[in-house]
Write a structure and sequence with these properties.
mainly alpha
Length: about 200
Amino acid sequence: MSSRRDQLFAFLLEAEKLKSVTRATPVHDGARRENSAEHSWTLALYALVLAEEAAPGVDPLRAVKMLLIHDLVEIDVGDVPIHSQGGTAHDSVAIQNAEAQAAKRIFGLLPKDLGDDLLALWEEFEAAETPTAIYAKSLDRVQPVLLNQLSGGGSWLEYEVTWDQLQARVGTKVARGLPGVWDWVQAKIRPWFTARGL
């Protein structure tokens, strides 16, 4: 029978695999693609630094926890870019089901009490109904936008993303939790799309 410590480290060593999951979004200078562990760490930092932008009722430290674990399911499922298959793949029932199964497997490596807590936290993030989850989801959507802008277009070029598509797939979700941030981001990125007639 495994000890509690064995279970804790089984989970932590499994989480190391997130460093090998490559995302569609490039790093800031476009030199390579970001990995999901880098993405999660950066979002945790966003949650701390942008806490003053959060709506009433948001718990920034709970958001940090959500963002550190939110993409662990990609160990099994991989990254599903928001613009892939014309924007239809990311939120598809098949992907949602696969991610739910991955969450059960990965958090199931932990002792039951901790595993159940982290699974509930992951489910709260996915549902995006609490103020904290809405905040965390908004951060998850805004960070890739900024990386694409910094890298000269990044995955927008690969997926031939238009301004209207970006607004529908990303902007509405960012604005839901961080309307002032989305206004600021739009002012930064709109010229990129305008210059290309997109």
